[in-house]
Amino acid sequence: MNIVIIEDEPLTAEDLAFILANADLHISVQAILTSVQDAIAWFQQQPAVDLVFSDIQLGDGLSFEIFRAVRIPAPVVFCTAYDEYALEAIRNNGIEYILKPFTTETVLGAIDKFQQLKKHFIPATVDYEKLIRLITDHESPRQEVSSVLVYHRDKILPVPLTEIALFFVENEITRLHCFNGKSYVVTQPLDELEKLAKGVFFRVNRQYLVNRRAVTDANYYQPRKYVVNLSIAFKEAIVVSKNRTAAFLQWLTQK
């Protein structure tokens, strides 16, 4: 069985590939694709595969854009952390979904379901335009997320949002900095974290997402720009982008 993984989080992709490689001697992971553009290019050049494991939100867009651009008759197992509203939409089109963080049991369960459906499977036309609108244009009731998962040595740790002073990007790697001074690498991109922590955190520029509790005040820097002063020690000056100044000042007035 030839399988392709579409996933932009390296550790997640490696874990999934490891589980698949050890699940069955007849399973072969043909490629690990990390972006919409890479996946489109690969599928345009490569022969058909039997099954695709795909994340939804990649660094350069939604994975649905891949299947919209290239005809891929293979069924798809979505690996996602999205809320139940989006999952219901996917459930009615894909053959299965796996909630992150996934386990060996959930991955093998998806493989087993594929095997059961294989003899009777008829590729369906999936309305990816509709799925994109469902996820990007609508907010649905969901449980509040209170922690972010981080990788530390050989462990996965939940770090409560209340303990995080800011998220930031350094050398193309997303990190978080806690009020107690500890810092961790985060696998989620800053855009996703901004949605996760909406209201409590503010995206002051492309590089920084700060907690309201970490902000003491702001200094006037130059026309329509401010430097954010934090209640913690941090190595870099954080400047609010001009196009975010008005929203930032409004955000400061909130509790």
For the record, the CATH class of the largest domain is: Alpha Beta
Low-confidence stretches: 138-143
Task: Supply the CATH architecture of the largest domain.
Answer: 3-Layer(aba) Sandwich
Query: What class do helices, strands and sheet pairing give?
Result: alpha+beta
* Number of distinct beta strands: 17
The ordered string of helix (H) and strand (E) elements is: EHEHEEEHEHEHHEEEEEHEEEEEH
Give helix % range: 25-40%
The oligomeric state is single chain
As laid out across the biggest beta sheet, the strand order is 9-8-12-11-10-14-13
**Major sheet attributes:** 7 strands, antiparallel
The N- and C-terminal alpha carbons lie at a distance of 54 Å
Radius of gyration: 21 Å
The fourth-level CATH homologous superfamily of the largest domain is Response regulator
Which overall shape is indicated by the principal axes computed on the Cα atoms?
Answer: elongated
- Output the CATH topology of the largest domain: Rossmann fold
Provide structural commentary.
With 255 residues, this protein is α+β, with helices and mostly antiparallel strands. The chain folds into two domains: 2-136, Response regulator (Rossmann fold, 3-Layer(aba) Sandwich); 147-252, OB fold (Dihydrolipoamide Acetyltransferase, E2P) (Beta Barrel). Helices cover 30% and strands 32% of the residues. It contains eight helices and 17 strands. The chain has helices at 10-23, 36-45, 64-69, 84-91, 104-118, 128-136, 190-196, 245-252; strands at residues 2-6, 28-33, 51-55, 57-58, 61-62, 76-80, 96-99, 147-152, 155-160, 164-170, 173-178, 183-186, 201-203, 208-211, 215-222, 225-230, 238-240. The strands form four sheets. Strands 9-8-12-11-10-14-13 form a seven-stranded antiparallel sheet, with helices on one face. It has a five-stranded parallel sheet with strand order 2-1-3-6-7, with helices on both faces. It is elongated. The model is unreliable at 138-143 (pLDDT under 50).
